[in-house]
Design brief:
This protein has about 775 residues and is of the alpha+beta class. Helix 8 (about 275-290) runs parallel beside helix 12 (about 635-655).
Length: about 775
């Protein structure tokens, strides 16, 4: 199966003006300081060194990509402008632009003091979008002619582009493997008659049992959702939020099931994508925990905005937060800004759930074989320089905006059989991208490695191909390709040659570990050229959990279909991932040191279920013999909010338990998955974690809420003091009111105790 990104652009490449207006934030409130919480989970020791630059601060300036954009004269919001900046023409990783044609850029400062001091000057030059709290940065809307002036402000370290993010929804079966991995099983649709759309997740997660036995609905808990948008889809989606409330799919005034607390706050004024996937995620939570209060925030266009929005949800009372998004500049080989924020709030007693993403495609290993295995990534312990196909040097010049770049290329071949490229068969959408990162620290990149795609014979492809790096500080690059311009074609099956080229005369090139994740849309990697045992010993194929979902602070969810929950979705991201460096230092921009020992990260932690019924998202299925007609939400994006909702039920059942205890209960009691129809090549724990989350078992592992303290019986009376109500009008009289007050304060008290216990580093 595959995965779909949500394109924020109209056919012209510019964000819709109506939506673009939402991007413009006028009022900016400055935060007096940085919220810091000690992490419960320390990193291994790092090798100490005396940095050549004792300040760790790089010279300020406009990133090379934005400088090329400014020099090009291209109109922001067009594919030409994104390409001029060295970015994909569209989709995830492309340039974020508002409806007025202004580019979203981030000014990074050497300190919070410098950041705050610069605010008046920034406001006099450009419009401020957000002021960073998690890092000394300011996001602004700027036209290219103002880039240099903004970067010249005192204390600026760099000016970097804001980018569109990647979301973990999924749409279709790959044509070659649909039969081999085919879905089976009967749909299980349950739900109260007050809902127009039934809940099909209750049975596979055991939610129907705990709702019936304990009356759990999440009341007293707050779940925050982070995704692209909530109610900005307009006429591109089938319903709006108000209609969903009336249908019983979301809470709010007019909800026919009686859940009238509206979703809020809804923080989408910095949205850059507009599919309303976040509203679909909120529907998933509401279907399982309808009594829980819901909130929403976008991920923003930068890692700082993402981290700050997480903190905003916490500040507004979130007990559980769930996201389905990664940003392409988040590092794979060290803890980034977003992951650090999640570690901070975990230490404060908040449970954070993330989707494992959908890059774990399943394909064939070896030419002409039927050996099925995970094919979502390729990774080598070192870059092995070799020869290149003709023309790669010129392609590198285009990618980097340089001339005369000297290149060599990765030798992909088995020992003794050098290969200039890696033959791959991909099933993709019309436009797709592949991502590359290499093991150098953020702000310490010395090597530039860029992927390129050629045809099966190693010749240039017939249609548009873009390659480049996202910025000047992150060891990350991409290749994007338009496989067809026919708007009626949804998927394309093609044979390609992947090339990794290294710039020999840029920076100080090394031979670091390098990894490619095939973030293709809709399909996956259908075939790789070498059979098991033919790859070099230091090559790893398959693991595709990356960015903050790979971090230990995150409860990461894979996916199995709701109508066949014993079969893993073949796109569900698998582990492991590995950290080789200490955390990114966003405060000083000093490169992190290498860890004395690599930190292997087993992921995912567990799985939820996808293909969740919604009122509008993502695809309408009809005529199926497996599932009834309706909108179904596939992907780990749909599974993760179900896990978050089960966590809310567990917290309601056991309000005295800490978030860590609830997390442990969810993981330790998950239902193990049966044997799957192919060999993943990694441990089961790196495929489905501990198994499918199961609410009855998780709740059984937790202590129930303590019984309320007895309240002395009130003297007999026919009237309640101060109200004039008869005792018959309020059962139990004063005693009943006292019990109500006691019960009403219980969850608040236990929540405070849970947060306090987490802050003390205790588990009770």
């Amino acid at each position: 199966m595959g995965h779909a990104y949500a394109d924020a652009r109209t056919s012209s490449g510019r964000t819709d003006d109506r939506r673009g207006a939402t991007l413009r934030r006028k009022a900016i409130g400055l935060t007096s300081g940085l919220v810091v919480a000690a992490s419960l989970f320390a990193f291994p020791a790092v090798a100490q060194a005396d940095p050549a630059d004792p300040t760790g601060i790089a010279d300020g300036g406009v990133s090379s990509g934005l400088a090329r954009l400014a020099a090009s004269g291209a109109t922001p919001g067009t594919p030409e402008a994104s390409r001029a900046a060295g970015l994909p023409a569209e989709g995830p990783g492309s340039l974020a632009v508002d409806g007025s044609g202004r580019v979203i850029v981030e000014l990074r400062f050497e300190s919070f003091e410098a950041q705050r001091a610069a605010i008046p000057a920034i406001q006099g030059l450009v419009e401020v979008r957000s002021v960073g709290v998690s890092a000394p940065a300011v996001s602004v809307y700027a036209t290219p002619d103002l880039f240099d002036d903004a970067a010249a402000l005192p204390g600026v370290v760099s000016l970097e582009p804001g980018l569109l993010s990647k979301h973990a929804s999924s749409t279709a079966l790959p044509t070659q493997l649909g039969a081999a991995l085919g879905f089976s099983g009967d749909p299980d649709l349950t739900g109260a008659s007050c809902r127009s759309t039934p809940v099909n997740t209750a049975a596979p997660l055991g939610v129907d049992t705990v709702q019936a036995e304990y009356g759990l609905d999440g009341t007293g808990l707050t779940v925050g959702v982070i995704s692209d948008s909530y109610d900005l889809g307009g006429d591109k989606v089938a319903t709006d939020a108000a209609e969903d409330v009336l249908a019983g799919a979301l809470p709010g005034p007019g909800n026919p099931c009686g859940y009238t607390t509206p979703v809020g706050p809804i923080l989408e004024d910095n949205a850059t994508m507009f599919t309303d996937e976040g509203r679909a995620m909120a529907q998933v939570v509401h279907g399982i925990a309808p009594g829980a209060r819901l909130m929403f925030a976008t991920e923003g266009a930068t890692q700082t905005e993402f981290a700050d929005n997480i903190q905003t949800l916490v500040d507004n009372g979130a007990d559980v937060i769930v996201d389905d998004v990664v940003q392409y500049t988040e590092p794979w080989f060290q803890q980034g800004v977003v992951a650090q924020k999640i570690a901070d709030i975990r230490a404060e007693g908040v449970l954070y759930v993330a989707a494992a993403q959908n890059e774990g495609s399943i394909g064939y290993l070896g030419a002409g074989t039927d050996d099925i295995a995970p094919t979502g990534s390729w990774e080598s312990a070192e870059y092995r320089p070799g020869d290149c196909f003709a023309g790669i040097g010129a392609m590198m010049d285009t990618a980097l905006g340089t001339t005369g770049t000297e290149v060599d290329c990765m030798d992909f071949g088995p020992a003794g059989a050098p290969a200039k490229g890696l033959p791959v068969t991909l099933e993709t959408a019309a436009t797709f991208a592949l991502m590359t990162q290499w093991a150098e620290p953020v702000d310490g990149r010395s090597t530039v490695i860029v992927p390129f795609l050629l045809d099966a014979a190693g010749a240039p492809l017939p249609l548009s191909t873009d390659s480049g790096t996202f910025d000047d500080r992150t060891p990350a690059s991409y290749v994007a390709y338009t496989a067809t311009t026919d708007p009626t074609v949804q998927t394309v099956l093609g044979d390609y040659t992947l090339v990794l080229a290294r710039a020999k005369n840029v920076g100080e090139p090394g031979t670091p570990r390098v990894k490619v994740i095939f973030t293709v849309d809709t399909g996956g990697v259908q075939r790789l050229p070498y059979a098991r045992g033919e790859w070099r010993d230091d090559v790893v194929i398959g693991p595709a959990v990356f960015a903050h979902p790979a971090d230990p602070a995150v409860l990461t969810s894979g996916a199995a279909p709701a109508f066949n929950p014993e079969r893993m979705e073949n796109y569900s991201g698998t582990g492991p991932a590995t950290y080789y460096f200490g955390p990114v230092d966003a405060l000083t921009s000093r490169p992190a040191e290498r860890l004395l020992e690599p930190r292997v990260l087993v992921k995912p932690d567990l799985i939820g279920v996808d293909y969740v019924r919604t009122t509008f998202f993502e695809s309408y299925y009809s005529g199926s013999t497996v599932i009834p007609d309706g909108y179904y939400f596939p992907g780990t994006s749909a599974a993760a909010p179900g896990v978050a909702a089960v966590a809310a039920l567990a917290m309601q059942y056991s309000p005295q338990s800490t978030a860590e205890q609830v997390r442990e209960a969810l993981v330790s009691t998950a239902v193990p998955m049966p044997e799957q129809p192919f060999d993943y090549g990694v441990s089961d724990a790196n495929v489905w974690g501990s198994g499918r989350v199961f609410a009855p078992a998780a709740i059984a592992a937790l202590p129930p809420a303590p019984a309320p303290a007895p309240v002395p019986a009130a003297a007999a009376s026919t009237r309640l003091a101060d109200t004039g109500l008869s005792a018959g009008g309020a059962p139990g009289g004063v005693a009943f009111l006292a019990l109500l007050l006691l019960a009403g304060g219980a969850l608040v008290s236990f929540r405070s105790a849970r947060r306090a216990a987490a802050a003390r580093g205790t588990r009770g």
